[in-house]
Amino acid sequence: MRAAWFAFALAGALGVSSLTGCVAVPTSFASRTGAFTPNANSSLVSSPAFGAAPGADATGPIGGGGQPVSTSALYATNLGPIALVGVQLDTLGLDKPSFFWNAPPSGRTNALAIVSASQGWAVGAGVSRCDGGTWTTEGTDIDSQFSSALPASSQVTLTDVAFGGAGNSLGMAVGTHGTVLRYNSSLQRWSSDQTLPASAAGKNFGTVKILSGTEAWVAGEVVLHWQAGTWTQTTLPSGVGAVEGLAVIGPNDIWASTGDSLIHWNGTGWSIAFVPTGGHSIGSPQIVNGNTLVGLAVEPGVTSGLMYTYDPAKGWSVSSVSAPPGVGLDTLVMADANTAYAKSYDNTGLWKYDVVNRLWSAYSK
Question: Domains in the chain: how many in total?
Answer without folding.
Answer: 1
